[in-house]
Amino acid sequence: QVQLVESGGGLVQAGGSLRLSCASSGRTVSVSTMGWFRQAPGKEREFVATINRSGDDTYYADSVKGRFTISRDNVKNTVYLQMNSLNPEDTAVYYCAAKLGRYGRITADRYAYDYWGQGTQVTVSS
Questions:
Q1: What is the strand order of the sheet 68-73 is part of?
Q2: Which of 16, 90, 22, 79 is nearest to 51 (CA)?
Q3: Does residue 119 contact residue 7 with C-beta atoms inside 8 Å?
Q4: pLDDT-derived band of residue 62, with 50, 70 and 90 as boundaries?
Q5: Which of 14, 23, 39, 67 lies 20 to 30 Å from 124, alpha-carbon distance?
Q6: pLDDT tens readout for residues 65-85
């Protein structure tokens, strides 16, 4: 069992920044790939960013590429999402996801992930 808890969401002006954190607990040694997804009202959950176990391979959705950065600290069992140059289209509930498997590769496929956090709200005002 793996538990994920997101934090760091909030209200920010357009052009501002936020840093989200996802703290993992439980059998964290079984986790490899981590990801961030988001879901806005009336829309399906969409991929944002992913990172492999060692943190040396990442991939981003085109909509956030160049603005968001995913990173992880395996000592702290925490993954981060640094969000810069935020715009109102980034408003959504952001979810952290974990994929089991020691050698899992980065993936944008929501169905490849095994565990999900409860989400943290990010609201960007114009």
A1: 2-7, 18-26, 78-83, 68-73
A2: 79
A3: no
A4: very high
A5: 23
A6: 999 999 999 999 999 999 999
